[in-house]
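I'm stuck. Please check this protein.
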Amino acid sequence: MRWVTSSIAALSLAASLTAVPPSAAVGAPAPEPPCDAGTAPYQRELESELGLPVDGRQSAADCVAIRRLQQRLGISPADGRASLRTYRFVVADRIRRDPAARRDCPTRSYRVTCVDLTRQILWTQTGRRLVFDPVPVRSGRDGLETRRGWHRVYWKNRDHFSTLYNVPMPFAQFFNGGQALHGTRSDLFSSGSGGCVNLALGDAERLYRLLKKDDHLFIWGTKPGTGG
């Protein structure tokens, strides 16, 4: 009888040692890792966007708020850093939500793809209705600026290759000479293109499927860091 009692006690002790604590139970949210990104170039802009104290200095609270914003918008990496990438996605989201932010895009009964060179954002609308949500782009660098004004898509080539720059131009839609809307694997948030309007590959493919030959584009503004 003593042996049985001792065995039961031993089993009870083992069970208590291996039990899963409440905090580690299945379905419990994992704690967020520390947010330690430092001050970055677009600190003030993102502080203002989020309603934080605008002092241009990253705090722990700023970092967490920016990281949560990045997570909401699907920005990678979601590291809490006030980068140009994050700022451009925030601008695109504001343009999507606020019709007043699209006022420079001409309102027509037909489809118009608008390229704002100043904000480096592209979208498509019919009348005032968005048919392609705003996305960040990269336009022509200084001396090779993207040409402004009204244009039309005159040629589409899904698998175009540039012999001039020796680079692929997937989902190319030409609108003025050798300038086109097309996808790229390069960083959209540094330098500039040779005059084309670059999009992330997924965005370029979706736009390629949407637009048809003779569709209208309207391009305005000045890319930061260029002479226009």
